[in-house]
Each structure stands twice: as structure tokens, then as C-alpha cells.
Amino acid sequence: xxxxxxxxxxxxxxxxxxxxxxxxxxxxxxxxxxxxxxxxxxxxxxxxxxxxxxxxxxxxxxxxxxxxxxxxxxxxxxxxxxxxxxxxxxxxxxxxxxxxxxxxxxxxxxxxxxxxxxxxxxxxxxxxxxxxxxxxxxxxxxxxxxxxxxxxxxxxxxxxxxxxxxxxxxxxxxxxxxxxxxxxxxxxxxxxxxxxxxxxxxxxxxxxxxxxxxxxxxxxxxxxxxxxxxxxxxxxxxxxxxxxxxxxxxxxxxxxxxxxxxxxxxxxxxxxxxxxxxxxxxxxxxxxxxxxxxxxxxxxxxxxxxxxxxxxxxxxxxxxxxxxxxxxxxxxxxxxxxx
Length: 339
Prior knowledge:
Layout: H1 2-14, H2 43-56, H3 58-61, E1 71-73, E2 76-80, E3 92-98, E4 110-115, H4 126-134, E5 138-143, H5 166-189, E6 194-200, H6 202-213, E7 217-223, H7 229-235, H8 240-246, H9 252-258, E8 275-281, H10 289-301, E9 307-311, H11 323-338
Parallel strand pairs: 4-5, 4-6, 6-7, 7-8, 8-9
Antiparallel strand pairs: 1-2, 2-3, 3-5
Helix pairs in contact: 5-6, 7-9
């Protein structure tokens, strides 16, 4: 009865967004620098080969040259993204900086990079950032690619980061990781010596990818977890319209292989030795619970130390009272101690 009540609540909250649209399918080879016409190769095969090679050389895929072109004005940090997309608005990274309360800062200069959920507006996770600051941790909230200030005017939603364009989805999620790493660069330049990362939903996946490829991150809190990017898209409540654009062109097994470079699964071993918090929600329909449990079990199987928290709610209801306070408690308590 409790599960049914939460599932009904989740569906009602999901139905509030009436601007979801089914976008056309595309292999999107051009987005990742592949020639879609050479030798008449099957694009699905080319993408699967690209994905396998990319996982093997993920350090290269998720690295970018540093930049010194940072601008901080009125609490807003701006700098160029390492990837140039066809949309000019998306190519300037925007981060809001929330300085730590100096009375609670302590001897270390602690900071955390914050990645909100998919389609978060400009105020998403601001309350969480303010909570971190109150407990002595500076935070930088990343506006992810195609979100809020980075969204072109003709887009109603941040569709290009999770879409039926397979190559575009790979590249834009890669862009988010590179943007987060450049924030770590900036924090280090500013003298912060104890840096962590936290992400929610899609931001959780991207935070995990960032931590796996950024050795300067000391701690990571992953809020709603799954081992595979493709499986959440295929099975989740929030992405049914994306699946509708994919069906008939690619199946879940192939899609899982192609999107493996932006999935946490192959990189779990890379976070060993650092502080990790895994959070999932007991009645989640967006990040299905069996996927979350599979991810947590992977940490156990590899004997990678981690902390775990299970929220007594669903995905959307995590943002409702009292569950948002429970979630904020877990995240803040973990990061304040880990950093």
C-alpha cells in the first residue's frame, strides 16, 4: 500500500511537465567525430566499437587542456567549455559560488562541486549549496550543458543532454564532466585543498564519472544511482519520451554498450580509496530500484568502502518535505565529515 501510494504520487509529479516531446532518432556520429558514410559501415557497429575503445581510454576522453579564462563577478563564475557545440549559449560554463561561512570553515579550505538533476532550473540545489556554506564548505553549483543560462532560446527543456540522438548524448555528457573538472581546476587555483563532488539524478551519474577521472576529488556523494545510463533512459518514468524516440532503431542491449562510456559501471574501481556515499530511494520509478541495488552491490562485491542511505520516498518526492530535509541531512553530514 505504501509503495502504491508513492508510485501514484511520483506519476502525478512527473505529469506536471507537459512540454516533453519525442525527438527524432539519430545515430549522431558527427557529434563524436566519426564519419557516418565511410566504407558503408553500419553506424550501430561503429558506435559500439567507439564505445569499447573509449572505455579503455577514458582518461583521454574525459580530459581537456586547462584554461585561465575564468571570470568571477557577483558570485557567478564563467569560463569557456572545453567542447564547442553548435549552440553558442552552451559553450560558456556558468557556476554559482556559495562561499563558506568563515565562522565554520575550520583549518582546511573545503569545497564541493554541485551538479543538479536533469532540467533543473537556475534555483535547483541552491538551498543545498547554502546549507553546505552554513557548515563551512564552499560550493560551486554547475549549470550543466543546455540548462538554464546555457539553454538556447528555442529549447523548452535540456533535451540535448539526454536524447534519441545517440552521439550527441555521448558528447554532451562528456562536456558536463569536462566542465566539472575545470571547476576543480579553478577551486585548486583559489587555494582549496579538500574538494568533493555531489550530484543528483543525472547529476549523480556525471559526478561519478567526474570523480572516477579526477584524482583531486576526495569525496563523492551520489544522490540516486544506477550502473547504466541506457537502462535508466529505457526503464525510467522521466524518460519514456526519449525511449519512444529510440525504439525501433536500437535495442537496450546495444544501447547499453554504446552508452557505456557515460555509465558509472566500468569506472567503479577508480573511486577506491576515497569517501563515497550512495543514496537511492525505496520507491523510485525514475532510477528503478533494482538498478540502484545492483550498483550498490557492485561496491560490495569489489569490497570498495562506501556509505549507503536509502530514502523512504521516490525520485520526485525526494524534493518534497520532509524527504528533502532527510536527503540534505545525509549529504551535508557526509561531506562535512569527509572533507
